[in-house]
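Q: Please design a sequence for this.
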């Protein structure tokens, strides 16, 4: 099977893959779009399938109601863990988990969209929701391990054996095993032995597919092992303070009053790490535009740009505007930010987010032809090019995405990166700056691109500085380089 690709720009368009998580989970890439109650999910009403490959609805039952479900009244994640350890997943939880797994494994939808749909359709407490998301994320982060445990040849075989994934996961956790319907031929003997064997295999244990191992080692050599392990770990949840409307301490206090537990993040002055399973986008603080969800590493890119009041700044691959909003706050509403993208719907989303954030110095501009770029040559003090990339730095936030071989499009991505950098850099004034960034940790997409660009533009640009943020830091992986236009 082939997992659904993340939204990506076509080669003829020149933009960044900005598929953003939309669920209230630990999954986030650059920023996050809040739930929309009427959101369509692949244009379909029901998303799980039966054995005849027909869609079936998640039908509510009387026992699903809050007052009938013992697990729905548990206070925290630890309580949920202890409950499942003793009694196993409830029948309700198994149906919900299976529906989400089938959306991804059978329907080939992304995990983020499956979360968005099902947790909008099936309302449960944020603590229980966070607990289930954590379990499902781990299933996908170790899909090859659970395929081995389930006596399947490859992770894609789960398309025909969805039930085995939950079964193998419960066996791995030493929790009570669920019923396994329609799997009479599944050999359960040697289950513990296979689990032990898988844990001893570094690739299985770190949740690393072979293609990623080969790519990572070829690019990073001895540094890869540490980063591979980090990418197999659990992601953290970060938000960025909107300084247009308040300080980080003020935000932390307001969130605390709403039951959201946070802590400050060293080295990232506007960041808070959310340590509780809270429905952030239901909070009054979010509705008032006091914060945006954004990885701490991504926030360092905005800081690196160093946009100042009164400047003319171009965010050339703005998407829905995560970094655009950060730059607007840095400029204190003075000057102008031109947010550009080829996707009109992303710019429409940016307008809504900007209004909520109180960022009124942003001018969205759709790129519908090459003339749009040509008209802006030598017009900006700073140009941010958040280029399309393999996304290897953020894989742990999209654990379902890594089971599709990403090497097939890597050469195409490198060509697009080089083209974007060559053409969009011309929008910077002489004396201005171009900031090139990716959410990849692979040198061929990062410093190698900068080296090639400088070689092709001798006497026109010079490298001021560049930085790597690696997943082993605890943040997502990013690269950023600042170039000064000198001719």
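A: Design:
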């Amino acid at each position: 099977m082939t997992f659904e690709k993340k939204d990506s720009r076509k080669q003829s368009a020149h933009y960044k893959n900005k598929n953003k998580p939309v669920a209230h989970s630990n999954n986030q890439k650059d920023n996050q779009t809040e739930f929309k109650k009427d959101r369509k999910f692949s244009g379909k009403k029901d998303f799980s399938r039966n054995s005849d490959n027909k869609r079936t609805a998640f039908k509510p039952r009387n026992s699903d109601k809050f007052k009938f479900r013992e697990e729905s009244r548990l206070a925290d994640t630890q309580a949920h863990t202890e409950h499942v350890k003793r009694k196993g997943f409830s029948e309700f939880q198994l149906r919900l988990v299976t529906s989400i797994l089938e959306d991804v494994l059978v329907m080939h939808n992304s995990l983020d969209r499956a979360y968005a749909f099902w947790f909008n359709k099936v309302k449960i407490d944020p603590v229980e929701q966070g607990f289930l998301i954590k379990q499902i994320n781990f299933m996908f982060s170790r899909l090859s391990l659970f395929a081995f445990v389930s006596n399947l040849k490859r992770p894609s075989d789960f398309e025909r054996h969805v039930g085995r994934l939950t079964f193998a996961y419960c066996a791995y956790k030493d929790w009570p095993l669920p019923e396994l319907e329609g799997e009479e031929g599944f050999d359960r003997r040697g289950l513990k032995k296979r689990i032990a064997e898988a844990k001893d295999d570094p690739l299985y244990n770190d949740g690393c597919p072979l293609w990623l191992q080969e790519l990572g080692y070829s690019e990073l050599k001895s540094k890869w092992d540490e980063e591979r392990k980090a990418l197999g770990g659990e992601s953290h949840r970060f938000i960025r303070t909107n300084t247009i409307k308040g300080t980080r301490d003020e935000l932390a206090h307001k969130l605390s009053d709403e039951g959201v537990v946070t802590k400050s993040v060293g080295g990232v002055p506007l960041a808070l790490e959310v340590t509780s399973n809270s429905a952030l986008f239901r909070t009054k603080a979010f509705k008032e535009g006091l914060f945006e969800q954004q990885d701490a590493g991504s926030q360092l890119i905005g800081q690196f740009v160093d946009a100042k009041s009164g400047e003319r700044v171009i965010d050339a691959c703005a998407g829905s505007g995560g970094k655009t909003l950060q730059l607007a706050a840095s400029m204190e509403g003075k000057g102008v930010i031109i947010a550009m993208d080829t996707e009109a719907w992303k710019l429409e989303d940016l307008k809504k987010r900007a209004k909520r954030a109180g960022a009124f110095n942003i001018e969205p501009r759709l790129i519908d032809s090459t003339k749009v770029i040509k008209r802006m040559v030598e017009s900006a003090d700073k140009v941010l090019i958040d280029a399309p990339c393999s996304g290897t730095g953020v894989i742990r936030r999209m654990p379902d995405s890594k089971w599709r071989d990403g090497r097939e499009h890597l050469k195409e991505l490198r060509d697009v990166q080089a083209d974007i950098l060559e053409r969009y850099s011309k929008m910077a004034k002489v004396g201005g700056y171009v900031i090139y960034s990716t959410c990849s940790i692979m040198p061929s997409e990062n410093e190698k691109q900068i080296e090639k660009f400088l070689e092709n533009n001798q006497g026109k640009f010079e490298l001021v500085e560049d930085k790597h943020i690696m997943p082993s830091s605890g943040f997502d992986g990013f690269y950023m380089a600042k170039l000064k236009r000198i001719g």
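Q: Thanks. Anything notable?
A: DSSP finds 18 helices and 13 strands in the chain. The first strand starts at residue 48 and ends at 49.
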